[in-house]
Amino acid sequence: SALLVGVGGSGKQSLTRFACFMAEYQCFQIELTKGYGMLEFREDLKKVFKIAGVQGNHVAFLFTDTQIVNEGFIEDINNLLNTGEVPGLFPPDEKERVVNEIRPYVVEMGLPETRDSMYAAFVNRVRDNLHCVLCMSPVGDAFRSRCRQFPSLINCCTIDWFNDWPEAALLSVSTRFLGDVQLGEPVVKNNIAAMCVSIHMSVTAAGERFYQELRR
User: Fold this and answer.
1) Average confidence score pLDDT of the chain
2) Quick check: helix, strand or coil at residue 2?
3) From the CA atom positions of the chain, what is the Rg in Å?
């Protein structure tokens, strides 16, 4: 699992999706809707668990701090990172269905066909196939607070810090996007590309100054 730390727009989600494409992993991300809460979040977790545990497919669960509408989301992810499962995720009737669905895999692996053994095989398969990728912004106190409250975010993840984009990279992106736009002379296109970089960097600097002076 991975914890990607960087300000918004630094490419955390894009890089994750690209890595999933290269590794031929399925990338799963929740979709926030009106009224989305713990019940809906746990239903999404069940889908991910079944993809990894029953179907046996590699899946990356991409989750960002902007999707935390309930701190209980992080508590469940903390348990998932720490033990490989979420306590009480499957009620008894759904747990029984999971056991029946995992039975062919258990038979193929030559494991005991007891209820506890089959569910343990399901959990172990989830641990092998499910990869959590958490995208967080270090701005503000929320990130530090969550790291203190949920230590598995630090202890059970590989941490990757995303720094600000350098000026050369920003210029490359703006030039690429303006490549097919008809703007007359090439010098005009080059100047507009440079202006885009100047706007981006000046807004970033102003945002940092705003935070330092007003702390918000």
Assistant:
1) 89
2) strand
3) 22
DSSP β-bridge partners for residue 5: 136, 161
- Residues 91-102: pLDDT tens digits? 999 999 999 999
What is the spatial distance between Cα 191 and Cα 187, in angstroms, rounded to a whole number? Answer: 6
* pLDDT for the residue numbered 25: 94
Strand-by-strand arrangement of the 2-5 sheet: 26-28, 59-64, 130-136, 2-5, 158-161
Rounded to an integer, what distance in angstroms lies between the CA atom of residue 79 and that of residue 147?
Answer: 14
Distances (CA, A) of 17 to 59, 120, 129, 131: 11, 30, 16, 13
SS3 29: coil
| Tokens describing residue 64 | 């960002």
pTM of the model: 0.79
Maximum separation of any 2 CA atoms in the chain, in Å:
75
Give the C-alpha separation, 85 to 126, whole Å.
Answer: 8
- CA-to-CA distance for 55 and 176, rounded, in angstroms? 40
216 has a pLDDT exceeding 70: no
Token readout for 179 is: 């490549």
- Of 137, 106, 108, which Cα lies nearest the Cα of 122? 106
Residues facing residue 135 across a β-bridge:
4, 64
pLDDT of residue 42: 93
